[in-house]
Amino acid sequence: MSEPRTQDLSEPPADAPKPARGGKSSPTIYDIAKLAGVNPSTVSRALSKPGRVSAKTQKLIEDAAAQLEYRVNPFARALPTGRTNTLALIVADITNPTFFGIIRGAEATATARDYTMMLAESAESPDTELTAARRMLATVDGIILASPRMEDTRILELAREKPVVVINRQVEGVPSVVPDVNKGIGEAVRNLAANGHRKIAYVAGPPQSWMTARRWEGVKAACEWSHLECVQLPSTKPTVDGGRQVARDVVASGATAVMTYNDLLAIGLMQELQAAGMQVPDQISIVGFDDIFGADFTTPALTTIRSPMTDCGTEAATLLLDLLHGGGEAVPALQVETELVLRGSSGRLLAS
Amino acid sequence: MSEPRTQDLSEPPADAPKPARGGKSSPTIYDIAKLAGVNPSTVSRALSKPGRVSAKTQKLIEDAAAQLEYRVNPFARALPTGRTNTLALIVADITNPTFFGIIRGAEATATARDYTMMLAESAESPDTELTAARRMLATVDGIILASPRMEDTRILELAREKPVVVINRQVEGVPSVVPDVNKGIGEAVRNLAANGHRKIAYVAGPPQSWMTARRWEGVKAACEWSHLECVQLPSTKPTVDGGRQVARDVVASGATAVMTYNDLLAIGLMQELQAAGMQVPDQISIVGFDDIFGADFTTPALTTIRSPMTDCGTEAATLLLDLLHGGGEAVPALQVETELVLRGSSGRLLAS
DNA sequence: CTTCCTTTGTCAACCGGTTGCCAAAAATTG
DNA sequence: CAATTTTTGGCAACCGGTTGACAAAGGAAG
């Protein structure tokens, strides 16, 4: 009785006729109660409601729990309470480096506060996204949507069932974390103006991306302020390949500097322009967006406007967790700062 | 009674005094049973045990379920059965592109077979890894460990509780999926030999990585076969930065071609060598490993040995799901093929 | 030493499915 | 048409926690 440890390792297969579970079935609060000589409900309180039981009983129960290597059964807990200590994060594209920081930031925050994070991706499809969200809805306490592609209405539907925080988008009535693009864009445009550029092209992202509109607005405003001409060019898709395809339009536009919706577009664009014999940045300057992993692999390394994605992930998770614990009620819209990361792909325009 | 739909939408908030749940509480099998005029257990059978109830009753129940927009409560199901329809994937580093393919492949497979995937990362720490694994153990049906850093013993402990599949490593008695490096390495070494190289350096990865040893063995064997000299160089860490740091040793080694444990090392190495004024590939050829995202961003683009990581993820998930459904018992060790991806960073050695 | 107020532990119901056992109903067979 | 086998549906116990209501025990105040 006092030393059941080594025996336990061999007994269960013998005395439990149908273990059913993968291995040996784990101890329950009933086992602890028996060992500590108290009622199961007291055990439950000792382990989840701090201060509800006397210090003496508390210790008794904790020791028993430790001895049995007890771990709560999350399902048994979730069933009556609905609490799962799990968060869902849905990103538009797992392979898009933009999201790495978000994933990491959110994961770290969740783990630090004793939550587990479930990750799903929508592969850029609004339908897949909604399906994934619906599927996870039942098993998590809250959801973070990073750059969601679904309609506002759908997001609001989800938000009615469980707390939702969106990143890179703003939806009326839903808490959000969004990079404030203006600072970074302002720095970039001023820099380009100072380097002699007079016309800037902005290569847009997918129309359903909320962020591409914000960035274009930012570019337009900054250009007006600096008395620069600017023009928006559509892209087929926000990838390296999409960047290659838009190169022809960029040249045709007559702009000497390009800002793109994201770094992937910028990298593809640069590859294509260089392949066509153009010098970057001597003939054309390129500025990307996001400062993704790999942005400095290129030659020249990519100048880009960094959005602190890790912070976005951290902030979003914090926001969500605070909401779950009855914190801030005010449907906040957090902003994080962007900044220009000056590398080799932008610079002084040389007369050609 | 026959048209409770529109009423139901407004009633619950009214007649349920304590919704407790985030929104309105969802319908249960009891609601379905009432609506269909059968016993709850019959509903349960109709929805999970195909063929156990008559076609007529089945339809009755399915219609009622559809009408109520019923969705099973995963916790209620998991509690008695232990089944969760959830898989855990633990990777060493979320930001390391090597794992993107694994994540995506595993996620897609899981989703296709109606499982949800939970993702965790260990940040390269054996302890964090074990903690994460233990935490998820209770809530998932099985675990995929991608490039695990923990000891064999620990992996075996986990495997005793729930089915485990490892990627990029082999552990006695645990099913695994591992790229067969020899084909790709053979192609690479033959190509280097044909281009006039006589001495090859291999930049190793972290000592606790099972894979770095396999790759070195492969390089050594292929070099012997092609009568090339080869030497192994340690690195501080398997990142771009680690690659930069090892550049000096590479030059000192006198090798004219370098193969690295992974692409990140190769990219860092190339950056540093180019910064020091060396021509790639004219003076030194560089071959990476994995063909990660961004491997073609560099100038010249990186020659590398591609491991089909997406396949690894797919295979691992398939293996695990088959195990869970009582499939293959034989503790398989799957191999996936590697291949040389010839780009610009390797080529003919020019006399200097 | 009462009386009253806290603190602490127990009882029992409940969360929402699953499943073994049994009996009623239906189908098959003689 | 009765006897037997197979289907099919119902009953009730159970999974492992949580929690409201309540009573016993302990402490403070008078």
UniProtKB/TrEMBL annotation, chains A, B:
PROSITE patterns: HTH_LACI_2. It holds the Pfam family Peripla_BP_3. SUPFAM superfamilies: lambda repressor-like DNA-binding domains, Periplasmic binding protein-like I. It comes from the Bacteria. GO terms for molecular function: DNA-binding transcription factor activity; transcription cis-regulatory region binding. Residues 27-81 form the HTH lacI-type domain. Gene3D superfamilies: 3.40.50.2300, lambda repressor-like DNA-binding domains. Keywords: DNA-binding, Transcription, Transcription regulation. This is LacI family transcriptional regulator. Residues 1-27 are annotated as: Disordered. It comes from Pseudarthrobacter enclensis.
